[in-house]
Design brief:
Blueprint (H helix, E strand, L loop, with lengths): L3 E5 L21 E2 L2 E2 L10 E8 L3 E10 L2 E3 L13 E7 L5 E7 L4 E12 L2 E7 L2 H5 L2 E4 L5 E5 L3 E10 H8 L9 E9 L8 E3 L16 E6 L4
Parallel strand pairs: 1-4, 1-16
Antiparallel strand pairs: 2-4, 3-15, 4-5, 5-13, 6-12, 7-8, 7-14, 8-9, 9-10, 11-13, 14-15, 14-16
Amino acid sequence: MNNIIINKIKELPPLKTDFFDDILDSFRPFTLNKTLLNEKFPHTPVVSVKLFINEDTLQVKFFLIDKYVKSEVTDFNGPVCTDSCAEFFFSVNGNGYFNFEINAGGTVHSSFIRNCERTSDGFRDYTYLSEDDLRGIEIYSTMPKIVLPEIAQKTIWQLSYNVPLRTLEKYAGEFEIAVGTVWHGNLYKCADSTSHPHWLTYFPIIEGFNFHQPNFFGEIRINTEDE
């Protein structure tokens, strides 16, 4: 399994830049092709991701060829995983990990999780990102804020977002972004409460039906575009 690469560049592309724009053509996409419970839920969208970073911001760009698309959660830190949802979980320094979960309408759910043991109210040790910090994340989706009724036919949509590095440091503490730095994490796509639920990952989850398993995270390497 290949590492995920975050491309370190001086100037990030505009958030609304198309995934296949010429200025992004030289950057390798990462495609999610591992599935959970595929024998019961055979719908498998096409999901590709490109990641970028500069001295101030982490940018994540998803491209999806999907069906049965739904997006109705609009509250910060609401259950966006029940909608058509693209997710990036990652640890920048081993102190815990972030879960950025964003539905097709561009609503975000994110925490910093230090102990992912499940409890009645979430996890053993975690902190929701504040509403102010979530508002500070720039998000662009090609889908409307609310997608109802569900769109059953083939739908191509894109999702991009910028996360200020100062926001990550606020929760995780200091971390490195030098070329060659290794983070750990995984990329996911889900749609728990659509008519055709599905769960895709980049790095495989060997056991358990649960994205919150950092023991299955893979390497995420910060490189320049020519490495």
